[in-house]
## 1
Amino acid sequence: MSFVKSKSFKYFKNLAIGVGAAFVLAGALFKLESWEGASEMLILGMSIEVIIFLMLGIIPPEPDYYWQKLYPGLDDYNARLQPLTAGASNVDMGTPLHGDVIERQLGGMLTELQSMSKSMGALKALQEVDFSGTSDQIKSMSNFYTKMNEAMSDMAKSAEDVKAYKDQLGALNKNLGSLNTVYGNMLSAMANIGRQ
């Protein structure tokens, strides 16, 4: 491991950036307030920043991950690599992988990750739903259905009563019809008696 990749160098680099920024800001404050030594503070802070920016420009950026330690040549697009997983069903084990195959496989992984992200979003939306009043609503609905069943039962009893009433009215109608016939016969008989 080179000195540039060591923890002590990384600590020194962060310290130098912080100290340089502090001197620049202090110099700017001194300059705005017209305090004594403002120019010297700005010169010192800017000089430190110049050295830091030169150093950062010369030192190559650090990779986010060190995959090339596990798969040498991974950082070279045209490198011929062996398959990343043994027994991959869609890759012939004898054919080495190169950049576009890896890119295709990573594209599939990206699609899967996007799908998972949408699913997680849906779960998050479900998590944010307020179920605090649900218990009361369920009790209220249960009471409503109970009252509705009682009303239906009462209506069924009323329907039976209406049927009995209808039957009684039918019988009454028959009786009235018979009475009308008897009354008509009586009137005819009385009219006949009155003529004689």
## 2
Amino acid sequence: METLVLFLQLAWTFFVIGALTIGGGYAMLSLIQNQVVVEHPWISEATFTDIVAVSQMTPGPVGINSATYVGYNVLVNATGSQVLGVCGSVTATLALMIPSFIIMLLIVKFYQKFKTSKLYAGTMDWLKPCVVGLIGAAAVILMFKTTWADGVPSVQVVADNFPDWKSWLLLGGAFVAGYWGKVNPIYVILAGAAAGIVIY
């Protein structure tokens, strides 16, 4: 019974995320993190960061990949069964995709009619900065943890994600290589993996 409830919670959580997220997978990460780490403490902050890293390196949209890995981790941690873990992956992935699929069908049907509308253009102009903000929020959430005491925020670096100065050095090197050096992200990932193996 508890396992069934967990499946239903997982399905509903990712269905809502899929229905409310605008801006693709990266904008979705902050919502996923809030639901699976904070609201439902199914996995730890460090595990979620690992899931995001693997999701970015594997083929496919990062949001869907994250849902797949989260669904697997949640069910394996709760039941110890890899079979149920795979079922959790399927549940979370489908629940995330169904709202987008339905919404896109409706958009395709009405897009030709409304694409020249000023209201449509204005809505898109307002949504673009919101998407950038959501993507930025996802990055900040992975780096920092904010706690509140008597209305005063306390910001701390998530130690599991940046355990030492070498982690910060790798982060800085990857940023410089990608942003200013315009290095292919695949090479940055491979170099990061090699450096991690050598250093740790």
## 3
Amino acid sequence: MYFSEFQHLVDVYVNERDWKKYHKPKDIAISVAIESSELLELFQWKPDPLESGKLDRELKARIGEELADIVIYSACMANALDIDLSEVLLHKIKKNSRKYPAGKVAKAKDWDEIRSIRSKLSEKNGDD
């Protein structure tokens, strides 16, 4: 499924329930933050679940649920503001590819070196 199809599916879901009247950008942004916090809560005060080399099936399912909520609310926000997520996602990945060229950052030894590469490219290109 293309993201535009998913975005349309979310729009249909919301319309069938007559929820558009509640979908103000401020409220949807709050909902994205709440769902993101629920995702973080799955990890709070617990050991890294991947230290053992595998992720518990129940935790993985719960992470998936929270990620789904975040993406659904993001699609709601895009619909409320008439933003084509497929278009902006492609634009953003291209922008990030310029900011973090694979040939340079893949060889970096740590995040500090990646930040240094990014900083030098930013100064050179006048990016943000």
## 4
Amino acid sequence: MMAEKQVYIGLMSGTSVDGIDAAAVEISGGFSAPKCRIIAFENLPYDEAMRSRVFELFAPETSTVDKIGEMNFVLGEAFANAALSVMKKGGLNASDVTAIGSHGQTIFHSPDGKVPFTFQIGEGSVIAEKTGVTCVSDFRTADIAAGGNGAPLVPFTEFALFRNDEKSVLLQNIGGISNVTVLPKGCNANEVFAFDNGPGNMLIDGVVSVMSDGRLRFDEGGKIAESGEVDEKLLGWLLEEPYYSLKPPKTTGRELFGALYVSRIIEKFSKLSMRDLTATVTYLTAKVIADSYREFIKKQTVCDEMIVSGGGSFNHTLIKHLKRLMLCESVRVYTGDEKGINSDAKEAVAFAL
């Protein structure tokens, strides 16, 4: 059992590289049934210069050891500042906080290579030194060392917080990558399973950014996709991606669905407008999620509802597609906000827990 009440801070930066989510969380109860109360939450966006420097590290041809080493400490400062900011917002001192859990910023993830590995930056020692609070920052590497895939990492907390004795639930996160946690009705921890469906916002953001010459970073609210038409030829080509047919456990990331993938789409279908390209990859994102439920989950666990969190939960066109596709599978779809869950804060809360 943990102490009656303790305060932890969770820090998260995902594959979209939008910024740092920071949550100060009061946690009580044992690990079998924890209770979490968000004291304060903030999202601190990266400025464009910082974001560009991080993106340089994703490609081996532009990533060098000196750049990686420098950005490891630069982002450590940024994560520390995020922790200090959320502490100030919550009226907390360092002595009030038991520990900080920082996911870091993934720059390369290779769980299936000859030597499985994953690499996050945002130096935990810098966070600890600057905040005066113990920092844990090796979540993904620890999971791979233990024989896991290093992702998704949130299922433990989703089991602890959302297990339901009355119905089976899908907890669907749509960040840069889409990943799902399956909580069968009345499950124990060993019955929970999770995997990456495929791209989340990553292809949508990539297409919008390239086609707008960098003026836009994402399709706010899904408005661009809503104004376009799904191109069946492009959709068919995209659905041939071998990742979708791989059986779980499986994870993916920017190494597959990043800038080169987006370039191939735009080059091969150069006659399509930004609106139609965006509409098609948005629909693809929803379809891949629905297909993965039918192929890999439904045969084991027939689910009653899906709760969607992450940045994709605010893309109304994506959610509209997902609700229609999942209704065909007799699964009702809700956003986290519709369920009273802070969709932005969920992953930061998870790393606190």
